[in-house]
Amino acid sequence: TPLSHIRNFSIVAHIDHGKSTLADRLIQQTNTVAERDMKAQLLDSMDIERERGITIKANTVRIDYLAQDGETYVLNLIDTPGHVDFAYEVSRSMRAVEGSLLVVDSTQGVEAQTLANVYHAIEADHDLIPVLNKIDLPASDCDRVAEQIEDVIGIDASGAIAVSAKTGQGITETLEAIVKHLPAPKGDRDAPLKAMLVDSWYDSYLGVVVLVRIMDGVLKKGDQIRMMQTGARYGVDRIGVFRPAMQVVDELGPGEIGFINASIKQVRDTKVGDTITHDKKPADKPLPGFKPSQPVVFCGLFPVDSAEFEDLRDAIEKLALNDASFSYEMETSAALGFGFRCGFLGLLHLEVIRDRIEREYDIELITTAPSVIYHVFMKDGTQQDLHNPADMPDLTYVDHIEEPRIKATILVPDEYLGDVLKLCQDRRGIQLDLTYAGARAMVVYDLPLNEVVFDFYDRLKSVTKGYASFDYQMEGYRQDNLVKMSILVNDEPVDALSMMVHRDRAEMRGRAMCEKLKDLIPRHMFKIPIQAAIGGKVIARETLSALRKDVTAKCYGGDATRKRKLLEKQKAGKKKMRQFGKVEIPQEAFISALKMD
Ligand code: GTP
Q1: Residue 74: beta bridge partners?
Q2: Which of 83-97, 201-215, 419-433 has the lowest mean pLDDT?
Q3: For residue 78, how far is its CA from the centre of ligand 1 (angstroms)?
Q4: 3-class SS at 441?
């Protein structure tokens, strides 16, 4: 295909504004898929993605479109990951295309996440086509939303296309706009091969599949290729495009997007953003902007039933095959036995992996407190990266500690602004900006990542009844007064509950934690002290009194329902216990204790 007849684009949208539905419509209207094969939401292939309504893996489709000018164009849609944890992956996908459809739900308006992805698109020099979706709904207000796009994003929305991805209205206009308003890709067929590695995943039949965008040169079956960042060499076994099912082709030329198979053993051998070139006639330099992906949130995963450790290892190894950004190493904890310390790109990533282990592999897990990476500066001038609060060196040798900070952008209706400001302030946030767009405020905060990893999303959702949208980016490290707080149950330290906290907030957090644990740990036949300590100093303490022989005695005999409930509760609590010295702690205590209200 000549460059002039190719258009590459992505769709930028907030979750639920209709990205997948629109993509399906574009595919359907261009007859890319036979009607009978048309499954709802073709692009979200994994169950878990569908269930949670998020798109994790970038997917792609090639559409042939016969335009009104009588010419047939090849339209390549790259579906970008829809979550903040995958900011780097999003930025690479954006570099692989020349333009974006900016889809905004015309009954809702612009959200924080839309903004973040728009910034990625603008950074990649995209032309943006605003698309106002869901015009079939009575609440649709295109004028208001177009105005908001101009105010908040600062792009011209006068030519915005009114669309209903549901009824198909405006789809032809969208396809025409892609052809007319987005630039054709550039590239030199005769130059040495330069292809960007956009994404990769493991396919049980084909092995590792690599999604590439050809910048210069031509890639053919049988070519010897080299990854410029990792230096690895491979022979290309298969080349193809997605329609959206895989279709083998002979070659991919400049401007084209497709996949290759090349006897690559594992997904971790492929790095998003790497440059693929010919081994014999390489490009002189790689594409700019490559960044190895770095986990930012760590936590321990332990099987509830220690007999399932090998199953857990198996599950983790399999998941890691398909996810290069997920790291793990074996960990042993005095309290929890054998497990793994795992690194994730962010909280959502953590949740997805944890869910998959529990659901697909049927292993019940204990998840320890998520932790970020602290930079610990020692008095002797050396520096360590602390991934696990349990490994915190003795304070007498520590000079100072730095923690990662984020820049958070929150969009919220006016009436909830006060609650949001309070929440950010409570989490040691520093306000950077506050502006208004219509009836909504946009606040920008500098926040410590560790205050966000526990339950910030949950709290934000609950204080704003779900109306706030949130996005963040990493902002580097800063020194603060941080200490490790240990929790002792019956005088035994419980590693899995130790955490890094700000000194000024340690007492409060310690007290809250002890109170919670007091409710979460069932009573035993003896008295159990529950303490929070910094170094050797106890900063909070609760005592769980000893159990009386008859647990129902305090119910005064009368209320039978209450009695039964209490006994049932006890029985349920018994199921998932871990033994800590002489004390049994239920599994949910680990998660609940770490949530702050
Ligand atoms: P993620 O995949 O989670 O990012 O969401 P998405 O942006 O892909 O949204 P999706 O296409 O899943 O649409 C979200 C919901 O809006 C679904 O229930 C769709 O059926 C509905 N929807 C999408 N487009 C339209 C539309 O034009 N009109 C109406 N009434 N509903 C729509």
Answers
A1: 6, 64
A2: 83-97
A3: 18
A4: strand
- CA of 19 from ligand 1 middle (Å) equals 6
Q: What angle separates helix 171-181 from helix 19-29, to the nearest 10 degrees? A: 90
- Lowest-confidence pick of 76-90, 252-266, 366-380, 423-437: 76-90
Task: Name the DSSP class of 111.
Answer: -
CA angle, residues 457, 496, 425, in degrees to nearest 5:
35
Query: Beta strands 537-544 and 482-489: pairing type?
Result: unpaired
C-alpha–C-alpha distance, residues 23 and 532, integer Å: 52
Cα–ligand 1 centroid distance for 243 (angstroms): 21
Cβ–Cβ < 8 Å for 487, 498: yes
Question: Cα(377)–Cα(382) distance, rounded to whole angstroms?
Answer: 6
Residue pair 223/236 in contact by the 8 Å Cβ criterion = yes
Binding-site residues sit at 16-21, 133-136
Q: Per-residue pLDDT tens for 375-428?
A: 999 999 999 999 888 888 988 899 999 999 999 888 888 899 999 999 999 999
Please choose, from the candidates 569, 587, 575, the residue with its C-alpha nearest in 3D space to the C-alpha of residue 497: 587
> Which one-letter DSSP state was computed for residue 75?
E
Phi, psi of 588 (to 5 degrees): -65, -15
For 281, other C-beta atoms within 10 Å of its C-beta total: 11
Who lines ligand 1 at CB under 6 A?
A: 13, 15-21, 44, 53-55, 82, 133-134, 136-137, 164-166
Helix extents (H) in 400-442? 417-426
Q: How many CB atoms lie within 10 A of CB 171?
A: 19
Which distant-in-sequence residues (6+ apart) come within 8 Å of 417 by Cβ? 441, 443
Pocket-testing residue among 20, 56, 132, 348, ligand 1, by greatest number of atoms within 8 A of Cβ: 20
pLDDT digits (tens, 9 = 90+) for 516-550: 899 888 888 889 999 999 988 999 999 998 876 55
What number does the ligand 1 atom closest to the CA of 24 have?
Answer: 11
Residue keyed to tokens 């941080």: 482
Alpha-carbon distance 180 to 103, whole Å? 18
